[in-house]
Amino acid sequence: MRLLPAVLVRMTRGSRSLLLLTLIILAGIIIPFMIWGDQFDQTLSLKGARTWMESYGSWAWAAGILLLIADIILPVPSTVVMSALGWMYGWLLGGLISAAGSMLSGIIAYAACRWLGRGAARWIAGAEGLRKGEEIFERRGGWLVALSRWMPVLPEAIACLAGLSSMRWRVFLPALACGSIPTGFVFAAIGHLGQSEPAWAFALSAIVPIVLWLGAARVMKR
Predict the structure, then answer these.
(1) Which of 5, 59, 103, 183 has the most CB atoms lying inside 10 A of its own CB?
(2) Do the beta carbons of residue 132 and residue 18 sit within 8 Å?
């Protein structure tokens, strides 16, 4: 019985350390938005993003993917870029390009943090904090990754935390696909249809990842 308070203290310290690590990652993403977010929003409006990508001619699709990848460290309005891709290429091809860009962005953030940032994360959060993160991503990582892709700021943060927590590739990749693919197609469809109010897109891109992840999780269990 005497061991119980000590265990609870260690768990509390681990949770605090994990929270500190999460806040540092969020700060690294949010601060650029606070400093340069308005400038990027003005430059990369729907029309501005299309004009910028079209300046690369036949490589406009690659420029769009690079913008989506740059969202890892820069305040790029990714949903606007996806809509611009849909405007340029139609909902099908634009959706494929958008989903590919979102997938690559998540993979790069995950891989970089898993192989390059784990030492720094251990220094910040300690072994107990990382163990706590590993437990969370082992139980609910798929849901966190899939649902985060339709939310602002969180996609990059969750992908980084998944990498730092050594979430398994075979779970991370399907979950990333379940979130990135519907989001890419929904916003590409918005751009293709020329709609300016994307409220319904958020609803759809929140529901579809849940359905896809339920199916993927059932298949992986088998």
Answers:
(1) 183
(2) yes
Place of tokens 């609870």: 8
The C-alpha atoms of residue 26 and residue 124 are separated, in whole angstroms, by 14
Q: Please check the confidence at residue 69 and state whether its pLDDT lies above 90.
A: yes
CB 121 within 8 A of CB 164: yes
Selected residue with higher pLDDT from 152 and 68 = 68
Q: Compute the distance between CA of residue 27 and CA of residue 98 in angstroms, rounded to an integer.
A: 26
Alpha helices by DSSP H, listed for the chain, are 3-43, 46-54, 60-70, 78-115, 118-148, 154-164, 169-193, 199-221
Q: How many CB atoms lie within 10 A of CB 70?
A: 16
Q: What pTM value is reported for the model?
A: 0.72
* Token pair for 66: 């690079």
Residue 45 CB partners (closer than 8 Å, separation 6+)? 80
Tokens linked to 89 = 């290429």
* Neighbour-count burial for 205-214, b at 16+ CB within 10 Å, e otherwise: bbebbeebbe
175 is written with which tokens?
A: 């979950």
The predicted structure's pLDDT at residue 43: 60
Amino acid at 50: R
The region, left, alpha or beta by phi > 0 then psi within -120 to 50, assigned to residue 155 is alpha
Q: Is the pLDDT of residue 196 over 60?
A: no
The dihedral sign for the CA sequence 163, 169, 171, 173:
positive
End-to-end CA distance of the chain: 40
